[in-house]
């Protein structure tokens, strides 16, 4: 239910209970817990997201990625590490560029706040029953 991208953070899906006027909703929604070197984030604020301890977190599966991209796992690992390192250097140097994650969302900095904005389609794929509640929470 979660994946750790070394040097960047953890993406996970959490269940959240919301009390509505007439019923209680339990929705699945994506979250991102930032895990970068704080020296790269000086002057930036970021939401503190704590992923519950019962959520299983797995390391990024380079072997699976290699099957979908036809690149060797070692090459993929190096690419991910270099990309995260480059992004952290850019943040440290005050370049607040957006970091896009395909169909998931965009890690961006606006008004000195670094946060993950999930695409609507990502939320809809996770929660098809109470999509509007999940979108409001995300």
From TrEMBL:
Gene symbol of the encoding locus: Ccdc81_0
One Pfam family it belongs to: HU-CCDC81_euk_2
Any GO CC annotation of this UniProt entry: microtubule organizing center
The species this protein was found in: Tyrannus savana (Fork-tailed flycatcher)
This protein's name: CCD81 protein
Domain of life: Eukaryota
InterPro entries: CCD81 (IPR026295), CCDC81_HU_dom_2 (IPR040673)
Signal sequence bounds: none
CCDC81 HU domain residues: 57-129
